[in-house]
Amino acid sequence: MLFEQIKRREASLSLVGLGYVGMPIAIEFAKRGVKVIGFDLNATKIEIYKSGIDPTHEVGDEAIQSTSVEFTADETRLRAAKFHIVAVPTPVNDDHTPDLTPVEGASQILGRNLTRGSIVVFESTVYPGVTEDVCVPILEKESGLKCGVDFKIGYSPERINPGDKVHRLSTITKIVSGMDEETLENVAKVYEIVVDAGVHRAESIKVAEAAKVIENSQRDINIAFMNELSIIFGKMGIDTLSVLRAAGTKWNFLNFRPGLVGGHCIGVDPYYLTYKAEELGYHSQIILAGRRINDDMGKYVAENIVKKLIVADVSIKNAKVAILGFTFKENCPDTRNTKIIDIVKELGEYGIVPVIADPTADRDEAKRLYGVEFVDMDSITGCDAVVLAVAHDAFKDLAQADFDKMFKPVENDKKVLVDIKGLLDRKQYEAAGYRYWRL
Ligand SMILES: NC(=O)c1ccc[n+]([C@@H]2O[C@H](COP(=O)([O-])OP(=O)(O)OC[C@H]3O[C@@H](n4cnc5c(N)ncnc54)[C@H](O)[C@@H]3O)[C@@H](O)[C@H]2O)c1
Predict the structure, then answer these.
(1) Which DSSP state fits 269?
(2) Overall fold of domain 2-202
(3) Beta-bridge mates of residue 71
């Protein structure tokens, strides 16, 4: 069996795509004694890895420096591996349809370098059917080999949560699937090398694909419900988090909070499912309604900043607003699909150009993707409004005196403090007279 050869280091394992998902997998397999070839199309990235730097902060520089993973941008090195794991991006196009270009590209590359007896496992989040109906034909065409005879396929969705130091690859139960019993066993046994929490053998590849895409859709819908509640309670003058704390004392009340849904998973994956449903003649109602609500929350937050400024009698045109945090989630440098940019754009419509500080974000990426330049936290002064936008650990110790340094030296009722994630003690700031607002 292939998994035995992998364990005995007689066969190598490859990673195709070394980003937030691929890198931790490559490092972990290597740590547990497996021979790993880490391939990425992006030669610059490979050079960064070879110089011992982890720009994602997922594994850390030291892990990259001490790993035995062979980092390469040379696709022919994939020929030396028999078990391939594909972890390339699965974004959506501007019209929210799936952009399968990276998955198709990876399948072409792998196909060109596939050897008889190999197993290819896709980890990228997709709608049910992509592995078998989209990837397999490409693999067959490029390799001239027959799936099921010359090579086998499987699917194992990734559940890691970048920035989360508790739920790691080895501690999260992993769903595995394979095209037949033998492949399933091989895939399961290979992942068991790195996943201490164990694996769940899904009934089929499509079941595994569907399981992943609904996990994130479920989160998206639940957060959308919270966001809708926040809008309703905002109109009623009731504090949403206080309501949730009260309701949360019931044993079966689900623990979700309102917030901005950005990134390339929760805000994207539901579109993969609705796209496939649409193709089959079903127009999603709940999933797309949730998407619409969540996609509009940046605008909603910006509108509330402006309303608070008006009530505080601050001239909107000349208002100085600082935003603390730009990434799509806390403690993660990733700024792709951040919803903070929606706040920035919406404020721009009112003539406000906010200053932004984020000690955790990837500065180069933010500049490249959005043309945004960060300022240092220390340089934030003279503001009319401060928006605490992301719950980075770096912001958790900010005290009232720290915020005061950021504001103009005016009465507190002219200071607008927007606490999107509800990190601060609302009562403290309200009692001190601030114009405090949160979702
Ligand atoms: N980041 C997450 O939180 C997360 C969690 C679970 C699942 N996922 C899913 O995992 C997949 C990968 O996500 P990610 O966050 O690691 O993306 P990423 O952008 O961080 O990394 C993907 C890597 O693939 C490389 N790549 C692109 N096309 C390639 C090709 N044809 N051949 C080889 N390499 C190629 C890119 O250069 C990049 O380094 C996506 O489908 C995503 O939905 C992501």
Answers:
(1) H
(2) Rossmann fold (3.40.50)
(3) 38
In CATH, the number for domain 297-439 is: 3.40.50.720
Q: Answer yes or no: are the C-beta atoms of 23 and 58 closer than 8 Å.
A: yes
Whether the CB-CB separation of 238 and 192 falls below 8 Å is answered with: no
pLDDT tens digit string along 20-61?
Answer: 999 999 999 999 999 999 999 999 999 999 999 998 888 999
Q: Kind of pairing, strands 81-86 and 118-122?
A: parallel
Give the mutation target among 23, 27, 88 for probing the ligand 1 site: most ligand atoms within 8 A of CB: 88
Element (H, E) at 230: helix 205-236
Distances (CA, A) of 260 to 103, 166, 331, 422: 27, 22, 15, 12
CATH architecture assignment, domain 206-295: Orthogonal Bundle (1.10)
CA-CA distance, 403 to 342, in Å (whole number)?
23
Q: pLDDT tens for residues 283-317?
A: 999 999 999 999 999 999 999 999 999 999 999 98
Residues with CB under 6 A from ligand 1: 16-22, 40-42, 45, 87-90, 102, 105-106, 109, 123-125, 158, 160, 162, 264-265
Atom of ligand 1 nearest to the CA of 45: 39
Strand residue runs (E) in 105-203: 118-122, 151-155, 174-178, 199-201
